[in-house]
Amino acid sequence: MIDGIVTAEGVPAVFAEIGGRRWQAIIDTSFNGELELPERLRSCVNAQFVGRATSLLAANQRIEEDVFIVEFPFDGRVVRAQATFVDGDEILIGTQRLRNYCLHVDFTERSVKIEKVA
């Protein structure tokens, strides 16, 4: 099980240790990919280019992005996942990464729990 928080801004998040630093990772239920990572983490996650993909954003905006297989710490182990890289400092965890999990967000208690489904 993964425990997290609901931030003061009302955003569900968990934490990941990457490159010797503790990073906040936002649970983004409107993102149907696996991961979006800061460009500066590329060398820390053993990124391997696999191709390009078209993503549909808000307001029907489409973008082309490079997609990588990365090694990402998740649920007490390192998993292989698909990721894109962007400028900035936010990590986004999308619904595809959570496909075998149950997400519990309690806004009143400001808590997040992610549990693996058998």
Give a description of the structure.
By secondary structure, the chain is mostly beta strands. It has a single domain, classed as Acid Proteases (Cathepsin D, subunit A, domain 1, Beta Barrel). Helices cover 0% and strands 59% of the residues. It contains no helices and ten strands. The chain has strands at residues 2-6, 12-18, 21-27, 35-38, 48-56, 62-74, 77-86, 91-93, 101-106, 111-116. The protein has a ten-stranded mixed β-sheet, with no helix packed on it. The protein is globular and about 40 Å long. The two termini are 12 Å apart. 23% of the residues are buried. The model has no long low-confidence stretch (mean pLDDT 94).
Can I get a quick summary?
With 118 residues, the protein is mainly β.
Tags for this entry?
10 strands, mainly beta, globular, 118 residues, 10-stranded mixed beta sheet, Cathepsin D, subunit A, domain 1
Topology:
Blueprint: E1 2-6, E2 12-18, E3 21-27, E4 35-38, E5 48-56, E6 62-74, E7 77-86, E8 91-93, E9 101-106, E10 111-116
Parallel strand pairs: 3-8, 4-7
Antiparallel strand pairs: 1-2, 1-10, 2-3, 4-8, 5-6, 6-7, 9-10
What proportion of the residues is helical, as a percent range? Answer: under 10%
Number of helices: 0
Instruction: Tell me how many strands there are.
Output: 10
Overall SS class? mainly beta
The CATH level-2 architecture is identified as Beta Barrel
Shape: globular
H/E order of the elements? EEEEEEEEEE
Mean pLDDT: 94
Main sheet overview: 10 strands, mixed
CATH-defined fold name? Cathepsin D, subunit A, domain 1
Instruction: Give the number of domains.
Output: 1
